[in-house]
Design brief:
The complex is a heterodimer. By secondary structure, chain A is an alpha/beta fold. Helix content of chain A is 33%, strand content 18%. In chain A, strands 1, 2, 5, 6, 7, 8, 9, 10, 11, 13, 15 and 16 form a twelve-stranded mixed sheet that branches. Chain A has a two-stranded antiparallel ribbon with strand order 3-4. In chain A, strands 12-14 form a two-stranded antiparallel ribbon. In chain A, strand 15 and strand 16 form a beta hairpin. In chain B, strands 1, 2, 4, 5, 6, 8, 9, 10, 11, 12, 13 and 14 form a twelve-stranded mixed sheet that branches. A two-stranded parallel ribbon of chain B has the order 3-7. The chains are: A alpha/beta, B alpha/beta.
Amino acid sequence: MTDTSFRDSKGRPLVAVTGLGIVTSLGQGQADNWAALTAGRSGIHTIKRFSTEGLRTRIAGTVDFLDTDPLVAPALSQRFAEEAAEEAIAQSGLGTRGDFPGALFIAVPPVEMEWPQRRAMAEASGQDGPITYSDLQRAAASRRFDAWHDLFIFGTVADHIADRFGTRGSPISLSTACSSGATAIQLGVEAIRRGEVKAALCIGTDGSVNPESLIRFSLLSALSTQNDPPEGASKPFSKNRDGFVMGEGAGALVLEDAEAARARGATILGYVLGCGEKGDGFHRTRSSPDGAPGIAAIRAALDDAGASPDAIDTVNAHGTSTPENDKMEAMGCAAVFGARIGRLPISSNKSMIGHTLTAAGAIEAVVSLLTIAHGRIPPTINYAVPDPGIPLDVVATARDARVSRVLSNSFGFGGQNTCLVLGDEPA
Amino acid sequence: MSDVVVTGLGLVSCAGEGLRAHLDALTAGAPARTDTERFAPYTVHPVAPLALDGQIPKKSDQRQMEPWQRLGVYAAGLALDSAGLKGDAALKGAMHLVVACGGGERDTEVDGAILTGLREAADAGAYLNERLLNDLRPTLFLAQLSNLLAGNIAIVHGVTGASRTFMGEEAAGTDALRIAQGRIASGQVDCMLVGGSYSAERPDVMVIHEMGGYLRAKPFRPVFSRDGAGEAGFILGSGAAFLVLESAEHARARGATALARLMPVQSDRSRRDPGATARSVETLWRAAGIDAADHVISGATGVAGITAEEGAALARLAPGVPVTALGDVIGHTLEVTAPFGAALAAGLVAEGRAREVAITTVGHRRGEGVIRVCAV
């Protein structure tokens, strides 16, 4: 007989969170990150990983204390994911080492060969005239570079994580651009609600600060160019915000069917109460001018959670610090929360760790759950010049508050809008 | 649990476009188009010429995309047309999308020029920065980002429920179908567009797959006949496949014709020890509940070892049942293999040429899947 207390308001299995893991430029693990985030410390710094000569943006929230060889995005992303997953699984106490009894959903940055590898192959080709891809193909056929096949195909990071932690079934590697981390969680929630699995390891990871990735965003005028001081560049909701700052890291969550978690005596850290999403066909990088898709995603998350807007105690904003995102997000929140938006605390972790892109939704879900656990809302640093067009209660210094429910927003290129409602107790 | 039915199909490949062209190709035994010269020494199966305007009316949209995205958006449009949904803005606005794909094309001329210049550059880092800043088209990024195939389908066709993009080669296609089927069967959503696209006509992917020796650098030879010395490997094909999936009730309520049923999809990843592929296919075959398949569509790659294992497993599981290698129809299309196979199977069933079709997908590096498509 299923205990109805383990069902949500729609009669579905409740989804509990029993483990959290986090890596950002501020440090490794919940303790270090929480201390830094609530102290208002910035992880943004001048890029040392590669030459920034000639670039308009020379800062990022790179994770420099973890390393790989070769230093390429998929390898770094895997490394961050491993560290975050290790922490989350250890906290959950679920399974045994290398034998995680659940599915894997992992948001990874799109993979491609990088410049050091292209250069090595060009050199190995022996071509001394103009280089073409025929030369790279010939170098590839020498068999000297065979190990790079796995390094630069899309499924490898998930495969390695699945191997190391012993997750079950076929792992899902996914992207919904800057809402990927939230989508990884949503997929895990849905699988548990369908009853397919009792547990899921949901990860968002991103280690893609390299010259071409940075230049791509720079060419779209998406990045802040206020390099000095680096820690002042990311200023969500400020009048003088001028773009986002790239960041790196990973967030990992162990999700479990709440009944199963309780039965094994696990400590439940919180619940993923609702997930909402809505596409936008307006433009490849800009959102619909009326903000309708973002609003629909927030409302869908609230509806899925069976929660009214009044039940939300704070918003963990997408808050990228781009002129467009912050304006649209404020407009969307105002539409959903009405007059209350002026006194509903909202904060963006990206002010301190930058925009961790593929990882952001997962990292911010971890921070949201820590916010609930500690009853303290981390600040949006650099909020010195409020934007009069954005009348929000932006949390400028860490604020103590009883937090029972957090709305965590994620919005991305390609019309991706995904929102989560996280809570301390079932709705 | 709801039955999940296929109500629309969109296919493009070297065999042409649409179901009819592909059912004809299925019986032909060799791909309709093979190009051994453009990318020599590699053979490719190039996509048939398409009248893009038919599905992507705005030239500005066409210009914003690279070939892999155009193929996918085109096939998605065909699928919506065949499901009778093209004009139903409200339904498309609520329709969910799962796309299986990798990433987009490189600008090979820019890459070549930069690699040439780097050889003489005094400060390699500064040179790379300068060239990338000046030579990369700003919008190229959006034509390369994996999730922007879904984004373009939203923009061009108005499919804006919400999209998720699965990456990870062959397994991504299998799992896109698995998750979509599961979401509809359990009532989480009513109606979805699922599929993927792949452009093989690009030298950058040949570098990736030549590394590791997975690419066949010889003319076409049937997939299951590549076990001689130096014969193994896949021939890439350009193609895209999308399916409209609905709960049977949803399809009935809107008066749509159900072409076939998509049963719960089985997938797994085995460590690829000798024999593991065959064991995995056999386990998944049973889990899928394949009962009396009268056709098998195999996504076999032609890669040594695993292809022979799969062939032997199929001979045990379905003795005497005709097996069509999808690679012999359209070439190898990585993420698109599973959706393409499932769509062709639905076509066979809809035409009354089969009651039950099994589709197998064994990824060239990892991931096995068995998909069961049945008559309504």
